[in-house]
Write a structure and sequence with these properties.
Elements (H helix, E strand, L loop, with lengths): L2 H7 L2 H14 L1 H14 L4 H5 L3 H12 L5 H15 L1 H10 L19 H12 L4 H12 L7 H9 L7
Helix pairs in contact: 2-3, 2-5, 2-6, 3-6, 6-7, 7-8
Length: 165
């Protein structure tokens, strides 16, 4: 699932969490996202920033849901995950025995993910983190390797708590 598609299916509450974090904690990133999305839609950024926070979430989510906004949508997701949900990323990487720099940055992902280890890691994480946030991370993670990981795809397609149909 590409970033713009993630925004198409993202629950409103999760979008509000994401954009509220950016607006409050990552102000420069938020202003840049607003600027880029406004330009794409031939709007002035002030039109978005003058709206209520709820309306801003609605406008930005809709804008990120469009195919031309793919790069911006991925940027939004990566900033939020790497800065706002860093603990969750590190927890996943540690549970999967994937080497990282201590902040969640990985130089090289494994070619294959151990299905048993993956299942065990996600079951344990489910007790600590919201299921929607874990699922969002996994969909973004799938984009880090061309074609993703079949083991992870299988879980995303079959586990109801990860948003499987």
């Amino acid at each position: 699932m590409l970033a713009y598609q993630i925004f198409q299916t993202m629950p409103t509450a999760l979008a509000a969490t994401l954009f509220t974090y950016l607006r409050k904690e990552e102000r420069e990133s938020y202003k840049g996202v607003v600027q880029q999305l406004a330009e794409q839609q031939k709007m002035r950024p002030v039109f978005i920033t003058k709206q209520s926070p709820d309306k801003q979430v609605t406008l930005l989510t809709a804008a990120c849901s469009r195919k031309p906004a793919e790069q911006i949508a991925m940027q939004v997701l990566e900033v939020w995950l790497m800065r706002g949900r860093q603990e969750m990323l590190i927890d996943f990487l540690d549970r999967m025995h994937i080497k990282h720099d201590g902040t969640g940055m990985v130089e090289k992902f494994p070619e294959v993910m151990d299905p048993a280890l993956l299942s065990k890691a996600l079951t344990a994480m489910r007790d600590t983190y919201p299921a929607g946030e874990i699922a969002l991370y996994l969909y973004v993670l799938q984009e880090q390797q061309e074609g993703g990981w079949p083991e992870l795809s299988a879980l995303l397609e079959t586990e109801p708590w990860l948003g499987a149909q």
